[in-house]
Amino acid sequence: MNKLNNRFNPPDFGELIRVADGVLWTRMKIPGKLDHINIYLIEDTDGWFIVDTGPQSTENQELWKTLLSNLPGKAKVTGILVTHSHPDHIGLAGWLQDYCAAPLYISEKEMRQALNEQNYRNTKDYEGLNRFYQQLDASPADMEGLEEGLSFFDTLYGPLPTEVTLVKSGDTIQIGGAPWSLWSGSGHSIEHICLQKASGDILISGDQIIAHITPFVGISYMSQEADPLAGWLYSLNDMLDWISPKALVLPAHNKPLYHGEQRVQQVIAHHQHCLEKLLASLTEWHTVNGLSTVLGWKNKRGFARCLALEETFAHVTFLVNSGQVVCDDSDPSGILRYHLA
User: Fold this and answer.
1) Which of 5, 185, 210, 274 has the fewest CB atoms found within 10 Å of its own CB?
2) Do residues 190 and 196 lie in contact, with contact meaning Cβ atoms separated by under 8 Å?
3) CA gyration radius for the chain?
4) What is the per-residue pLDDT for 146?
């Protein structure tokens, strides 16, 4: 069984604790039920290399200023890596880069996604939004929750970095005189970067491996992936070959853990179970809305309800693309309906 490493008590927000040799752990605030993101600082030859930034807020900026002024040893920031473009990871990237005058690393597709979403926020171009969610049989209340959620998420993004160094899976970054190998996967986001020390002792996993949380995999209005669950399952299986069995896994949320490969296998099994539940229900025609109830998300409300629809859509799309389910798009209202092939 996957076990948490109970030696580690989470740091207070903005507090630095040593989680491994040459690696510091801090947390920034997220305004929500999941109230934190873990940030890691790796000791470099002439300063510290940061992984992820936290969401935009004046409070998080002040936490960063205090933290950076109290870094042990050389206080210089030598680089910043953003694992992916979700706001809790990239929200303060532009501000932090400017504040530290440090190079920033991100994958190409994640940067493109961030720019696409920035343009969407700036223009408030909602053309087609209602039509997209109409396919999923979303209710007027669902749409109200979506608009409220999008408005809230807008506040979590600060300015994007203006200069970036693009990285990809298979690249190596030298930090503190040691090579760290990069790996990327899709599904939860388009090109999520993880990094593992060449010694195999430490893996910084972002949202790819998290204890207790199964990362969101859905199709949204701004998705770049037509079949994100297929990408997610492929990535998880690929990751099993990359993870060092001795690695201390440092995730973006919750506590560090060992045996990351076991957690990956649990997440794969979770999605397989969801697919089996959908197949068992599709002896009758269902919309995405109806199928979300099959997956246990009937009582979700507000923005969480829309995320449930998006994740259900991703699962049934996977079944359509694998030939196990057919989709009827003939309804004049645009609502999609599904049945066993």
Assistant:
1) 5
2) no
3) 20
4) 84
The tokens describing 131, both together, are 């039509």
pLDDT digits (tens, 9 = 90+) for 73-127: 888 999 999 999 999 999 999 999 999 999 999 999 999 999 999 988 888 766 6
Amino acid letter for position 101: A
Would you tell me how many other CB atoms lie within 10 Å of the CB of residue 120?
16
The Cα–Cα gap between 31 and 41 comes to 23
CA dihedral 180, 181, 186, 191 (to 10 degrees): 70
Q: What is the pTM of this model?
A: 0.95
Q: What is the pLDDT of residues 306-328, one digit of tens each?
A: 899 999 999 999 999 999 999 99
DSSP code, position 28: E
Structure tokens at 108: 């190409």
Q: Which string of DSSP letters, residue by residue, matches 81-92?
A: E---SSHHHHTT
Quote the CA–CA distance of 211 and 260 in Å, as a whole number.
9
**How distant is the alpha carbon of residue 339 from its chain centre?**
31
Dihedral, CA of residue 12, residue 5, residue 21 and residue 265, to nearest 10: -110
Query: DSSP secondary structure string, 51-117?
Result: E------HHHHHHHHHHHHT-SS---EEEEE---SSHHHHTTHHHHHHHHT--EEEEHHHHHHHHHH
Instruction: Look at residues 288, 309, 306 and name the one whose alpha carbon lies nearest to residue 148.
Output: 306
Cα angle 191-226-270, degrees, rounded to a multiple of 5: 75
3-state SS string for 287-300: CHHHHHHHCCCCCC
- Tokens representing 119 are 């343009």
- Give the span between the Cα atoms of 25 and 39, in whole angstroms: 6
Match 């066993």 to its residue by tokens. 340
Which residue is associated with the tokens 């207070």?
Answer: 12
**Tokens 């993870």 — which residue?**
243
The tokens for 28 are 């920034």
Mapped onto helix, strand or coil, the DSSP state of residue 144 is helix
